[in-house]
């Protein structure tokens, strides 16, 4: 068994939470190598070095890898991957974009969004928006696995991994990066936040979402939204929590004016504590909530914010 | 320009999936099946490109059981010009893996020579999120996944992608595979006259053998079970009580 975790790095900056949890998941099976494929990997490699159970950090530097275009995983890099029996990536937009392309080149299947590792070849993953859990066994020579990071802990530190710089020819003549538009604010990233405050259709408008944001800022929380709120234009799409958006599992999830459609529950029901505020006492969100308050959100939320 | 749109027949997104008691899978007998919602968005985009005069022909392809014909008729009623059905199973409970789907689609691409393939980003049944990426790898074409905006030119295509924390815009050469996300558009409903017209549009049927593709699965499904349910909570009386609970559980970020 030889395991490789592909670290998520954006233009030299390590996505620490996603990568650490993926390493933690993979290291349930054995020690791991970590691939740092980006531009300017020094900082990221150093950060990864101290993670427990990491054996070797393989560094490949190229400008063509800095924005994670999947086409830059060209032939020589794929050859390196063939040395492994398992390849793990986080099931983030980075991993979801990359892993199936690698799988296609290798002519192998993927096991995506793994929530539990059973054995070296057997994994559990949610299907049907989390309404069922499937246990699958991979018959492929290389197991290609993406990890649902919200189900795993961060890897402990205490390691002292080797760093190995590889010179591998990277090519990409078919795609190029133009620009990133990243939400710039001080709030924590949705997928790694410890507290999330989410608003749903009940919030009523884009302007009203300020009520949600104020409470979130008071709690130092990330802001989320249901698909209904996103589809209605109240909130941007990258705030969407749910099957078609982001899967989260914070310490505390506060659902405001969210009815609790299946697709939303699939994205947040692994949260440790769920609080729901909704004026409709029949709302399904109360079935998963630890603490529910039946009250008009425009009355309750500002009051909560004041009293916190 | 010819555009290929793969469409999957899945359990309707408004129907709650029920796990069979024997652990063999999700119950698909006598339930409403529909076109995968993300595939609908892909098809809608293709139709809009045709209406703008950028695309000349739209081919919808579905892989699965005989009943996928209905899904293809819906695609034709929405605006696809013709359809190809690959009957890969006689059992609706057999899900064809994305790797197999991409191999079958790659074979169709060799015959049809489209310049663009528009796919849904994931099927809402198996939730793999893989077909577009695997297909682009098979064809050695570029991919643009999770598209929320597509700006098509003669030889290339600018795509804005939904990524964690924001948006990314990339440029890919044609031919290419693009997988679409929710915000790209809102699919139309087929009008009654178009549903009638769709019955006369060509629908070709073939088998995996005709394309010389091996469809044996790589993953063995051992068990399908219900997810763990959460213990039911309590309804608090007032804001003060709730504030207490929030304070107790909100370790700041």
Overview of this structure, please?
The complex is a heterodimer of chains A (308) and B (253). In chain A, 25% of the residues lie in helices and 29% in strands. With 308 residues, chain A is an alpha/beta fold. In chain B, the strands form two sheets. In chain B, strands 9-8-7-10-6-1-4-5-11 form a nine-stranded mixed β-sheet, with helices on both faces. Chain B has a two-stranded antiparallel sheet with strand order 2-3. Chain B is α/β, with parallel strands linked by helices and 253 residues long. Chain B has a single domain, classed as 3-Layer(aba) Sandwich (Rossmann fold). In chain B, α2 crosses α5 and α3 packs across α4. Chain B is globular. β10 of chain A pairs antiparallel with β12 of chain B.
Features:
heterodimer, A: 308 residues, alpha/beta, seven-stranded parallel β-sheet, 9 helices, 18 strands, B: 253 residues
Short description:
With about 300 residues, chain A is α/β, with parallel strands linked by helices. Chain A has helices spanning about 15-25, 40-50, 75-80, 95-105, 210-220, 225-230, 260-270, 285-290, 295-305; strands spanning about 5, 10, 15, 30-40, 55-60, 85-90, 110-115, 115, 120-125, 130-140, 145, 160-165, 175-180, 195-200, 220-225, 250-255, 275-280, 290-295. Chain A has nine helices and 18 strands.
Major sheet: arrangement of strands of chain A: 7-11-6-1-4-5-12
Assembly of the depicted chains: heterodimer
Q: Over the alpha carbons, how many angstroms does the gyration radius of chain A reach?
A: 21 Å
The share of residues in helices of chain B is 25-40%
Biggest interface and residues each: A-B, 99 and 80 residues
Secondary-structure element pattern of chain B, one letter each: EEEHEHEHEHEEEEHEEEH
């Amino acid at each position: 068994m030889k395991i490789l975790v592909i670290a998520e790095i954006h233009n030299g900056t390590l996505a620490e939470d996603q990568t650490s949890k993926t390493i933690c998941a993979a290291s349930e099976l054995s020690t791991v190598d970590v691939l740092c494929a980006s531009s300017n990997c020094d900082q990221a490699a150093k950060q990864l070095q101290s993670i427990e159970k990491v054996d070797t950090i393989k560094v490949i530097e190229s400008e063509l890898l800095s924005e994670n275009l999947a086409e830059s995983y060209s032939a020589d890099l794929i050859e390196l991957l063939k040395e492994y029996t398992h390849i793990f990536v986080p099931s983030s937009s980075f991993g979801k974009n990359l892993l199936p392309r690698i799988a296609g080149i290798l002519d192998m299947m993927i096991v995506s969004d793994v929530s539990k590792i059973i054995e070296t070849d057997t994994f559990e993953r949610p299907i049907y928006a989390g309404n069922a859990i499937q246990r699958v066994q991979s018959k492929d020579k290389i197991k290609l696995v993406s990890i649902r990071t919200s189900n795993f802990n961060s890897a402990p530190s205490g390691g002292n991994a080797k760093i190995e710089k590889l010179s591998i020819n990277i090519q990409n003549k078919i795609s190029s990066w133009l620009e990133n538009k990243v939400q710039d604010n001080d709030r924590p990233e949705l997928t790694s936040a410890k507290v999330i405050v989410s608003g749903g259709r009940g919030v009523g408008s884009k302007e009203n979402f300020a009520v949600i944001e104020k409470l979130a800022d008071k709690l130092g929380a990330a802001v989320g939204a249901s698909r209904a709120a996103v589809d209605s234009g109240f909130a941007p799409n990258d705030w969407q929590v749910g099957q078609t958006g982001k899967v989260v599992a914070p310490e505390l999830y506060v659902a405001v004016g969210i009815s609790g459609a299946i697709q939303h529950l699939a994205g947040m029901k692994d949260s440790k504590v769920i609080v729901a505020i909704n004026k409709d006492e029949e709302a399904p969100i109360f079935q998963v909530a630890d603490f529910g308050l039946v009250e008009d959100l425009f009355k309750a939320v500002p009051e909560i914010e004041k009293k916190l | 320009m010819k555009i290929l749109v793969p469409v999957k027949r899945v359990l309707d997104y408004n129907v709650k999936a029920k796990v069979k008691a024997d652990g063999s899978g999700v119950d698909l007998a006598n339930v409403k099946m529909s076109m995968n919602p993300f595939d609908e968005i892909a098809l809608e985009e293709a139709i809009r490109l045709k209406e703008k005069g950028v695309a000349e022909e739209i081919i919808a392809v579905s892989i699965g059981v005989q009943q996928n014909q209905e899904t293809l008729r819906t695609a034709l009623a929405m605006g696809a010009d013709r359809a190809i059905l690959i009957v890969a199973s006689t059992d609706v409970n057999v899900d064809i893996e994305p790797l197999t789907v991409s191999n079958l689609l790659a074979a169709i691409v060799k015959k049809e020579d489209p310049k663009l393939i528009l796919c849904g980003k994931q099927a809402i049944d198996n939730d793999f999120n893989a077909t577009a990426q695997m297909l682009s790898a098979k064809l050695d074409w570029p991919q643009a996944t999770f598209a929320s905006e597509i700006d098509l030119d003669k030889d290339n295509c600018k795509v804005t992608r939904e990524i964690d924390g924001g948006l990314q815009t990339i440029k890919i050469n044609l031919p290419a595979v693009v997988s679409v996300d929710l915000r790209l558009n809102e699919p139309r409903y087929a009008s009654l006259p178009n549903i009638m017209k769709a019955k006369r549009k060509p629908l070709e049927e073939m088998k995996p053998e005709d394309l010389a593709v091996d469809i044996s699965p790589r993953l063995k499904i051992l068990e399908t079970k219900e997810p763990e349910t959460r213990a039911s909570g309590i309804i608090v009386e007032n804001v003060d009580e709730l504030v207490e609970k929030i304070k107790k559980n909100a370790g700041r970020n």
